[in-house]
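It is worth pausing here to work through a concrete case rather than discussing structure prediction in the abstract. The textbook approach is simple: state the sequence, then state the predicted structure, then interpret. We follow exactly that order.
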Amino acid sequence: PSPGANARSPRPGATRPLRIFIVENHEDTRFLLALLLEQLGHTVFTATTLAEALAAAPAARCDVLISDIGLPDGNGWELMARLGEERPPYAIAMSGFGQVSDRQRSLEAGYRHHLLKPVEPNRLEELLDGHLEVGGELGGGRGAAEVARERLRGRLEPDRELLQVARHAHR
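Step two, the predicted structure:
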């Protein structure tokens, strides 16, 4: 089966495991990221290309998308656009490019965060923990995915870092 069709089960111990879809063409990066997330207790799905992600992501019904921007057959911004309503409600972009214009484009595409590669594992864990905390504390019993959807619709406070980038870009 294709990598996008494979899901690795979480290890026991996660208090609120997420279903996370990773799109990354660099094999070592994809493997290590999946390993980290599995050790944190999450279920991980992977794809290596835009085409694989488009084929597998909707059926995976994930809470979080973590995607490289540069893909062999397209980019992460195109992925978000083409997934449309079928995209996971919380998305994190990864890229070797961190210019204001790249970060702005990620925000406009619907990503909540734009991380510069190499991604720091602690930073990624903080973002996922923050996602879970919002689901638990502010969600009023709602799941993290529902709260993330509300964030995307602008009902909850957006990411401050991306807002600063957006404000700077519009000056």
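Step three, interpretation. The first strand starts at residue 7 and ends at 8. Residues 45 and 60 are 7 Å apart (CA to CA).
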